[in-house]
Amino acid sequence: MKSAVMPTHKEEAEDEVPDARTSTFRLNEGVSHSSRAEDLDDLHRLQKSSTKPREDAVHQKHMDSISETLKSAARVAGPKVVKGEKKGLETTPSFKYTRSGFLRAMSDAGLKPTVVYHNLTPAELYEKAMQHEPGTNIVANGALATLSGAKTGRSPRDKRVVREPSSEKDIWWAAANNAPANGSPNYEMDEKTFLLNRERAVDYLNMLDRIYVFDGFAGWDLESRMKVRVVCARAYHSLFMYNMLIRPTPAEMATFGKPDFTIFNAGAFPVNRYTSYMSSSTSVDLNLRAREMVILGTQYAGEMKKGIFTVMHYFMPKRGILSLHSGCNVGAAKDVSLFFGLSGTGKTTLSTDPARPLIGDDEHCWSDRGVFNIEGGCYAKCIGLKRASEPEIWKAIRFGTVLENVVFDENTREVDFDNNAVTENTRASYPIEYIDNACIPCVGPHPKNLILLCCDAFGVLPPVSRLTRDQAMYHFISGYTAKVAGTEVGVTEPEATFSACFGGAFLMWHPMKYASMLAEKMGQHGTTAWLVNTGWTGGRYGVGSRIKLRYTRAIIDAIHSGELKTAQTTATPIFNLAVPTTCTGVPDSILNPANQWSDKADFDATLGHLADLYETNFRKYANGGGFVEKELAASIVAAGPKVKKGTANGTA
Ligand code: ATP
Ligand code: MN
């Protein structure tokens, strides 16, 4: 029927197209459009075109590899994994057309087939999550809103590391029961207990109707990246890791082979609490020899992302590459900045900067060739998010983004970012290319500036100060921030937190190993360090207020323009920090916090109290831990605050 109206001569073609269209309409006037389908099955088949089918050999390799991963440690054979389309196996229509292919696996018992979805796309994962995971909805901005269950944050106390010969001597072990805490997050477990938990997780996963496998990379540096496999029970978890890992190209997928590291996430299933070493129904277990992680009893997705980070914190320094809990961006002059800081201090907010392409918001490595991001996505805090102050993050929340634990209107599906009814820790996970000026590939040259962020709720640290190398080491090792204790009415006392290297929860080696590598790299590359307080100004929490994001951004701009490098400074008491006297875009009066307090004696006492907390915390690292020379260790200690006897405990 088309041929009747199609031009026959080439030279007529362009002119004839509009005519062809009108004549088609004329032809169809008064006649209803009907599909080309023969029947309903045919109609569904027509709806989806198929991209080139996977080569059988590649497909078979994936299946064998997944079968190997899902193998029970106690029983010899892995589950029987066969191709879904195979004749004789019952398939349901919804499986028939899955583009990325699905696999039908037999559980060990051989009684109940398990469908394994391998590297599904976001659209497919949306559908699966909405079909099978209660509390999962598409919201008005297109994101997938879901709930992480009972846990809405990480469970650091439930982390266990297998004590085994290949890594035992390298690990910074947590102090044994009854010994005073040394700050290490690495509580030990034995290999047998790991296998018990692994078996529990694998049996749980093999028992489910469907599981998800995502294969991706950690690390943008092609020489040091790790191939990571995530096996999980929820489509939400698979989409989260699709966003957070580096997504393989089809060619990389075809040659993926055996993963370097595997996470078994059986988070909906609890630990058996009679198992040794367990302290709750949650356990996150790391086995460096087997290169496996098992998650039981928590569905908080951030556990997987930070699990991979922890693994990188072991393997990268072993190869001389420094892993860092930091955001990272790069200016027009190819000047790279790293933003260190504990949770909520501004790594994501400040590294996401319209003027500076984003390399990453949370996890980086610094090698001999420069910096690279570990991740393929960002994980932004959402509480109080506003389009006006953080437009880049706002725009990144769209189709493909996972929104965790946010509250939305039942009818309009508009998200209320101010609502903390589920948790304060609401989050958005999106691929890094959702940020308009992402720097892809996420790599950059050696950093020029290190920005050490803290959120000082005591309100005594200056909004910005320039650090000497030893001060930079001291503050990096200290890893200070403050939180506001409790939410009960009337409780407004800030509480200091110290977390070594601004990421104590993820360290595998002694903090001094990372610190010594940082000192060396700073020296080699002439890097300047800054301490930026994104916390309270005009008095402590309850009296003053958090410094305006606008001012902090102006400070960051002045660091990048070079203005603050040559600015005149004055030294603060006790901490001896070099504070610029002026900074473009920031009122002079807030640069020196002492000026902001009405009660000067209270200021001095509070500053002294904070210095005392720093000093007490630092004692455990003062000897250098065998990683830095005694001399350097001593000069780092000397760069800390000078606690004056008498003022140290002089505040409430
Ligand atoms: P995490 O390690 O948990 O991801 P993070 O360091 O990335 O934490 P952000 O997600 O950037 O922290 O959180 C900083 C929060 O503080 C944001 O919600 C931001 O809007 C808010 N904020 C308020 N004032 C400031 C300021 N002056 N500077 C930076 N952030 C600020
Ligand atoms: Mn962040």
UniProtKB/TrEMBL annotation:
<dbReference type="InterPro" id="IPR008210">
    <property type="entry name" value="PEP_carboxykinase_N"/>
</dbReference>
<comment type="pathway">
    <text>Carbohydrate biosynthesis; gluconeogenesis.</text>
</comment>
<dbReference type="InterPro" id="IPR015994">
    <property type="entry name" value="PEPCK_ATP_CS"/>
</dbReference>
<keyword id="KW-0963">Cytoplasm</keyword>
<dbReference type="GO" id="GO:0006094">
    <property type="term" value="P:gluconeogenesis"/>
</dbReference>
<keyword id="KW-0456">Lyase</keyword>
<keyword id="KW-0312">Gluconeogenesis</keyword>
<dbReference type="InterPro" id="IPR001272">
    <property type="entry name" value="PEP_carboxykinase_ATP"/>
</dbReference>
<keyword id="KW-0547">Nucleotide-binding</keyword>
<dbReference type="GO" id="GO:0004612">
    <property type="term" value="F:phosphoenolpyruvate carboxykinase (ATP) activity"/>
</dbReference>
<keyword id="KW-0067">ATP-binding</keyword>
<dbReference type="Pfam" id="PF01293">
    <property type="entry name" value="PEPCK_ATP"/>
</dbReference>
<dbReference type="GO" id="GO:0005524">
    <property type="term" value="F:ATP binding"/>
</dbReference>
<protein>
    <recommendedName>
        <fullName>phosphoenolpyruvate carboxykinase (ATP)</fullName>
        <ecNumber>4.1.1.49</ecNumber>
    </recommendedName>
</protein>
<comment type="similarity">
    <text>Belongs to the phosphoenolpyruvate carboxykinase (ATP) family.</text>
</comment>
<dbReference type="GO" id="GO:0005829">
    <property type="term" value="C:cytosol"/>
</dbReference>
<keyword id="KW-0210">Decarboxylase</keyword>
<feature type="compositionally biased region" description="Polar residues">
    <location>
        <begin position="21"/>
        <end position="34"/>
    </location>
</feature>
<dbReference type="InterPro" id="IPR013035">
    <property type="entry name" value="PEP_carboxykinase_C"/>
</dbReference>
<feature type="region of interest" description="Disordered">
    <location>
        <begin position="1"/>
        <end position="43"/>
    </location>
</feature>
